[in-house]
Design a protein that fits this description.
- It contains 15 helices and 18 strands.
- It has 518 residues and is α/β, with parallel strands linked by helices.
- The chain folds into three domains: 187 residues, Class I glutamine amidotransferase (GATase) domain (Rossmann fold, 3-Layer(aba) Sandwich); 188 residues, Rossmann fold; 95 residues, GMP Synthetase, Chain A, domain 3, CATH 3.30.300.
- The protein is globular, with a radius of gyration of 26 Å.
- Bound molecules: xanthosine-5'-monophosphate.
C-alpha cells in the first residue's frame, strides 16, 4: 500500500452490530480510510495497522453474557483515541472498572439527550438545545470508570455519553452513524478530525489513480482475463485494468440469452467501440436455452446457468491464450462477510459467479475493488468517465431473466418479459425514480388470466411489477411509487406487449419475501 490515501486510517472493531458497515461508510464519506475487523483482532495486528483512531462498534450482547465478546484490553492503553458506540461503550466501561447494569426499560428508538460538557466530541453543539439521537440498548452505564466524566445524559440513560479527555477515550450510548441521529455526522467528524487529527485523503479520484499505478506495477507484462457482465462492478474493474495495462487485458462477455433488451449491444458499444477494449462477445444463448428446456425449479435453473457459464467462459479464456490473472469485482462487503465474527450468512439462493474457475485454470485473482463499498465503486466509475447510465445501474442477477420467468423459459416468454421490462424501466426513468429505488423490474408469472379487449375475451399472461427500496439488499421494502406511475406502467404494458392482459404490483417486503421471485 502506498501511503497517501491510506495515510490516516481508522480501525473499526466489530462487536456484531447491524450498523457496523454504516459506521465504516460514514467514516469514508469523510474521506478517511477505515477497515472493519472482528473484535478479537490480535493486538499485534492492531499495532501493525497503526490507526489514527479505533471505533468499537455496538453489538447484540450484554457485557455479562457468558460469551460476551471482549477485545484485547491493551487497545485502551495504546494512546490512540477510542470511540465506543453502544456495546462498545459498555465494553470500555467494564474493562476500565466501571459498572454496566440492566436498564430498567429497554431504550429503543428516538431519544433526546442533553449535552453537559464542552468535550471535543460535542464541539460546536449548542448545550441549551436537546439533541435527538437513536438509542437501541438493554444495558446502561451505572458507574463510569475512573478518569471519565459524563458528557451527555438522557431520560433513561444517566450516561448517554462519557469521556476521558486526557486519555481521549469516548463513549456514546446512542448510534451517531444512523440517519435517525440527525447531528451524528458532526459527532463523527469531531472524532475523526478534532480528536484523531485525521486528514481527508481518501477520495475516489486518488483511489483510481493510485490503484492504476499499483496494478501496473503488480501485473507487469502478464495477461489478465476479465468477465464483463454489463453491471457496475465488472465494468469498473475492466476500465481500471484497461487504464493500467491496456491491451494486455482481454474481456469476455457471455450472452446467455437471458439478458434484457438491448443489453449486449450496449455493453459492446461502451467497451469495444468507445473504450476500444479487447472484448470478446460469446453468444451462447442457444446453449443456455437448450439446457434450460423444461426446467422450472429455481435452484436447478441457477445451477445449470452457473455451470454453463463456467464452461463457456473457460473455453473462451483458453482460446485467448495464456493469462496469469483473472480479474473479479469482489467488493468490501463480501470481504467483511468472510472475516466477520458472525461467519458468512446462510445461503438462501445460490449466487452465480465464476466460483472454482481460478483454481481450475490455475489463474491468480486480481480484485481491485476489494476495499470499496458499492457507492465508492460508482464514484470510481464516474472518475474513470463511465457513462452515468452504466454507473448508476440497478443490480441485475447473474442468472438474468431466468429467475424472473416463473416456470419454463422459452423464447416467446423471454420476448414478452423483455418487452414489459423495457417499458417499466422507461416509465420509472421518466418519473425520475430509477436512481431513487433499489431495483425495479418485471416478472412473468406462470398463470393466465381472463381479460377483455374490444369485444374479444382474452386469456393471457400476467406481469408482476416489483419495485423495492433498500440500502444493501439484505432487507427491502416495496416502494410506494405514485399511482399515476403504476397506471402508466400498466397501461403501456397491456396495450403494447402482446400476450399480456394483466399487471399486478408486488407489495411484499424482504423478509419474509425476497427481492427476486425465484
Ligand atoms: P434476493 O432475491 O435474494 O436478492 O432478495 C438480493 C439481491 O441479490 C440479487 N440476486 C442475485 N445476484 N446472482 C446475482 O448475482 C443471483 O443468483 C442473484 N439472486 C438475486 C437480487 O437482484 C437482489 O439485488
Amino acid at each position: 500500500m502506498a501511503d497517501d490515501i491510506y495515510r490516516h486510517k481508522i480501525l473499526i472493531l466489530d462487536f456484531g452490530s447491524q450498523y457496523t458497515q454504516l459506521i465504516a461508510r460514514r467514516v469514508r464519506e469523510n474521506q478517511v480510510y477505515c477497515e472493519i475487523h472482528p473484535f478479537n483482532l490480535s493486538f499485534e495486528k492492531i499495532q501493525a495497522f497503526a490507526p489514527e483512531g479505533i471505533i468499537l462498534s455496538g453489538g447484540p450482547s450484554s457485557i455479562y453474557d457468558k460469551e460476551a465478546p471482549f477485545a484485547d484490553k491493551r487497545v485502551l492503553d495504546m494512546g490512540i483515541p477510542i470511540l465506543g458506540i453502544c456495546y462498545g461503550m459498555q465494553y470500555v466501561t467494564h474493562a476500565l472498572g466501571g459498572v454496566v447494569a440492566k436498564a430498567i426499560d429497554r431504550e429503543y428508538g428516538n431519544a433526546s439527550i442533553t449535552i453537559l460538557d464542552d468535550s471535543d466530541l460535542f464541539h460546536g453543539f449548542d448545550k441549551s438545545i436537546e439533541e435527538t439521537v437513536w438509542m437501541s440498548h438493554g444495558d446502561r452505564i451505572n458507574h463510569i470508570p475512573e478518569g471519565f466524566s459524563v458528557i451527555a445524559k438522557s431520560k433513561n440513560s444517566p450516561v448517554a455519553a462519557m469521556a476521558d479527555s486526557r486519555k481521549r477515550i469516548f463513549g456514546v450510548q446512542f448510534h451517531p452513524e444512523v440517519a435517525h441521529t440527525p447531528n451524528g455526522h458532526q459527532i463523527l467528524k469531531n472524532y475523526l478530525f478534532r480528536i484523531c487529527g485525521c486528514e481527508p485523503s481518501w477520495t475516489m479520484a486518488s483511489f483510481a489513480k493510485q490503484t492504476i499505478k499499483e496494478l501496473r506495477e503488480k501485473l507487469g507484462n502478464d495477461r489478465v482475463i476479465c468477465g464483463l457482465s454489463g453491471g457496475v462492478d465488472s465494468s469498473v474493474v475492466a476500465v481500471l485494468l484497461n487504464e493500467a495495462i491496456g491491451d494486455r487485458l482481454s474481456c469476455i462477455f457471455v450472452d446467455n440469452g437471458l439478458l434484457r433488451k438491448g443489453e449486449s449491444r450496449q455493453v459492446m458499444e461502451t467497451f469495444a467501440d468507445h473504450y476500444r477494449m479487447d472484448v470478446h462477445l460469446v453468444d451462447a444463448s442457444d446453449i443456455f436455452l437448450k439446457k434450460l428446456e423444461g426446467v422450472t425449479d429455481p435452484e436447478k435453473k441457477r445451477k445449470i446457468i452457473g455451470h454453463e457459464f463456467i464452461s463457456v467462459f473457460e473455453k473462451k479464456a483458453r482460446e485467448l491464450g495464456k493469462a496469469r490473472y483473472l480479474a473479479q469485482g469482489t467488493l468490501y462487503p463480501d470481504v467483511i462477510e468472510s472475516v466477520s465474527f458472525k461467519g458468512p450468512s446462510a445461503t438462501i439462493k445460490s449466487h452465480h459467479n465464476v466460483g472454482g474457475l481460478p483454481e481450475k485454470m490455475n489463474l491468480e485473482l486480481v480484485e481491485p475493488l476489494r476495499e470499496l463499498f458499492k457507492d465508492e465503486v460508482r464514484q470510481v466509475g464516474v472518475e474513470l468517465g463511465l457513462p452515468r447510465e452504466l454507473v448508476m445501474r440497478q443490480p441485475f442477477p447473474g442468472p438474468g431473466l431466468s429467475v424472473r420467468i416463473l416456470g419454463e423459459i422459452t423464447h416467446e416468454r423471454l420476448e414478452i418479459l423483455r418487452a414489459a421490462d423495457y417499458i417499466l424501466i422507461e416509465e420509472i426513468r421518466k418519473a425520475d425514480l430509477y436512481e431513487k429505488v433499489w431495483q425495479s423490474f418485471a416478472v412473468l408469472l406462470p398463470v393466465k388470466t381472463v381479460g377483455v379487449m374490444g369485444d374479444e375475451r382474452t386469456y393471457e399472461n400476467v406481469i408482476a411489477v416489483r419495485v423495492v427500496d433498500s440500502l444493501d439488499a439484505m432487507t427491502a421494502d416495496w416502494s410506494k411509487i405514485p399511482y399515476d406511475v403504476m397506471s402508466s406502467i400498466s397501461n403501456r404494458i397491456i396495450n403494447n406487449v402482446r400476450g399480456v392482459n394483466r399487471v399486478v404490483y408486488d407489495i411484499s417486503s424482504k423478509p419474509p419475501s425476497t427481492i427476486e421471485w425465484e
